[in-house]
Amino acid sequence: SILWQARFFTTVNHLRDLPGLQVPEVAFAGRSNAGKSTAINILCNQKKLCFASKTPGRTQHINYFSIGGAHVAQHRKDATRVDEIRALLVDLPGYGYAEVPGAAKNHWNQLLGNYVQKRDQLSALILIMDSRRPFTDLDRQMLEWYAPTGRPVHCLLTKADKLNRNEATNALRLTNTVLASYTDEHGVPFPFTAQLFSSLKRIGIEEADAKIQQLTGL
Ligand code: GDP
């Protein structure tokens, strides 16, 4: 997969520092512990591209990974190679840590909210939810921010290895129903898809890979 070319590109802690590249961005969002880091690593076929930040209250960053022409970090200002970058994968800070102090929580709510509402380059959102407890309040908040943009969402229902067949079917059905209830300001639902996913048992990896490539225009 072309996603296997993913390389660390940059870390951003303020909206003003978002990369200036005019290439499609696909952003991964999810509650902390939903399995986002593991999913990105599996999809990119790399063990340690992302590591989960396990420390509550730690400053959260947006991490960028580049696809194509990417074997150079942005700070090296290698313009020709940066020009070869075809897409960016964006690892948004995990949300929902219980013990984060108010100020840090506000900072990252703003960062997340502004990014998903206003980022022109954002071409799709990959929403990572634990298949056993999808649509927490913060997942819904994320969708409320994002839905008015009318851009596509693809949901990965992670840890599907923990569900039996019946539970899996129900989780997928519920997800499609809830996603269909979000509309843009004209009452039009955004384009959405959802699938079961397991990094552990390698369920749904090819499907997710194909979907992400399609949404990124790769
Ligand atoms: P993040 O906070 O969303 O980045 O979550 P992580 O990727 O760090 O995963 C959180 C926990 O869930 C870790 O203990 C993982 O080992 C576990 N996990 C991740 N993916 C799976 C999966 O597909 N199946 C199961 N059973 N556990 C998983």
UniProtKB/TrEMBL annotation:
GO cellular component terms attached to this protein's record: cytosol
GO molecular function term, any single one: metal ion binding
Domain called EngB-type G: residue spans: 22-218
CDD domains (UniProt xref): YihA_EngB
Taxonomy, superkingdom: Bacteria
GO biological process: division septum assembly
Keywords: Cell cycle, Cell division, GTP-binding, Magnesium, Metal-binding, Nucleotide-binding, Septation
Signal sequence coordinates: none
Cofactor: Mg(2+)
UniProt keyword annotation of Endoplasmic reticulum present: no
UniProt function note: Necessary for normal cell division and for the maintenance of normal septation.
Family from the record: Belongs to the TRAFAC class TrmE-Era-EngA-EngB-Septin-like GTPase superfamily. EngB GTPase family.
Record protein name field: Probable GTP-binding protein EngB
Organism listed in the record: Undibacterium parvum
